[in-house]
Amino acid sequence: MSLTLVLVQTLNGLQLGVLLFLIAAGLTLVFGVMDFINLAHGVQYMVGAYFAAWFTAMTGSFFVGLALALPSALLLGLLLEILVFRHLYGRDHLAQVLATFGVILFLNEAVRILWGAAPLSVPVPEILSGSIVLMPGLLYPVYRIAIIVAGLLIAVLLYFLVSHTRAGMLVRAGATHPRMVSALGVDIRRLFTLVFGFGAMLAGFAGIMIAPILSVEPGMGDQILILAFVVIVIGGIGSIRGAFVAALLIGLVDTLGRSFSGDLLRLVMSPAEASQTGRAIAPMLIYVLMAAVLFFRPAGLFPAAR
Amino acid sequence: MSEAILDVENLNKSFGALRVTDDVSLQVMPGELHAIIGPNGAGKTTLLHQVSGLLASDGGTVRFGGEDITGLPMHARVHRGIARTFQITSILPGFTALENVALAVQGRSGSSFRFFGIASREQALNDEAASLLDLVGLAARADLGAGTLSHGEKRALEIAIALATKPRLLLLDEPLAGMGHEESNKVIEILRSLKGRYAIVLIEHDMDAVFALADRVTVLSYGRVIASGDPAVVRSSPEVRAAYLGDEAA
């Protein structure tokens, strides 16, 4: 357990954290603001990655691919909201879960039909390829740093949008007092549609950014969706700030836990036992964390003001 | 009667077998303060919901400024000039008084203000909000959190919010409810200052206020209009006294 390894894994944890934040931000807004459980949020991430792969292959440039994939992810989000989700807002959570699960199955199958079951890969853009020396003995891929920076920038932008702009004020007001905001002459439905599309675009952005370092394949959104739900429950449903803190926490705990729980356990048990127990415990750590947070703060770390 | 700004004709609304609005017709003239009174459960608030667009009607028409608006949603009616307050105080407690009103100014003007502009720097918007706060006597409270205002101040804030949408018709649902004598006098003064400048539909249980302010009074009982007209005439109608006013008017 060298210092370098700890630092590298910390950076990896941050990178997972900002990706989770991009996905969880939309999920928590949609769940918190509209009281709508959208299991299909994970497929937005997958579709973002597919769009990136497709447009990058078509144009030969990752950045042009990014520029085309982002609005496409937004459009798909808006389309799904108009065709499917808006008819579910008034329904109970079971109906929402069933219908959005159907959307997952549908879209997973759709990408399989369109792009095949084999994983696609997206080359890391030239300008962001290679590694840089962060400190003596510590090499880290530039692209992963770019993901971290992009994620943090989005977080700052989002915070500014929600807390300091008129649009953000309307969203916050509409979340708690929809009837009153409607009485101000605001079309609350259209506001919700925009929030929804924006959330979908953020998830798509996460998928686009991850495409060069993961394989793009059907179902890739399902696993991360579970993590995103853990994030919004820990952070407090409806809270962007909570989603940010919880996403980084989950990213770090999960990554560092998987790398080092064996090493830590070795302090108290034999090496063979330690590595076996560590492997068993590591995947559970985030759920243990969630249980602990729920026990002490049932509304999450930063409950959204009601 | 053709120049009425609000013209409600044969309006109906049922919840299951219960007819809450039963063939109600009434007109409001420009600048008129039209009070709607009636015992609890008479359907006053439901009628207001139907006029403001919060509830869809089962039958009948609502005309505003000559236009049939029966099928329009609430936000569209707001843009045509109908503003309302709610029986249960509806303000945004986490925002300042000024922000509450500014948001309403923005709701009205839509895209003419920069949607993504920095909220606190939009001078025109904040100036207009400040002058409305001044109008309802809350100028000194502008930067306080709306949740920390007294009950009477919250109701005054609601009126400022409603005015921010630049209405031609104000629908006020029990603006004096739950207020002490002094507080309700302040709100009555605000209403008096608005009278004549806006057409107002006022639902209120405070009979002293109603008969002091109203140009016309309509009495609802079990969803039906049982009397409508000049306050003095309505007040002395035996039917109304039996249904509602009881000894209070004697």
From TrEMBL, chain A:
Principal location: membrane
Matches recorded under InterPro entries: ABC_transp_permease, BCAA_transport_permease
Family: Belongs to the binding-protein-dependent transport system permease family. LivHM subfamily.
UniProt protein name: High-affinity branched-chain amino acid transport system permease protein LivH
BP-aspect Gene Ontology terms: amino acid transport
Species in which this protein is naturally found: Lutibaculum baratangense AMV1
Molecular function as annotated in GO: transmembrane transporter activity
Cellular compartment(s): Cell membrane
UniProtKB/TrEMBL annotation, chain B:
GO CC list: plasma membrane
Sample GO molecular function, one term: ATP binding
Keywords: ATP-binding, Nucleotide-binding, Transport
Top-level lineage group: Bacteria
Entry-linked InterPro entries: AAA+_ATPase (IPR003593), ABC_AA/LPS_Transport (IPR051120), ABC_transporter-like_ATP-bd (IPR003439), ABC_transporter-like_CS (IPR017871), BCA_ABC_TP_C (IPR032823), P-loop_NTPase (IPR027417)
Domain (ABC transporter): residue spans on this chain: 6-247
Pfam families: ABC_tran (PF00005), BCA_ABC_TP_C (PF12399)
Ranges in coiled-coil conformation: none
Family from the record: Belongs to the ABC transporter superfamily.
Protein's name according to its UniProt entry: ABC transporter
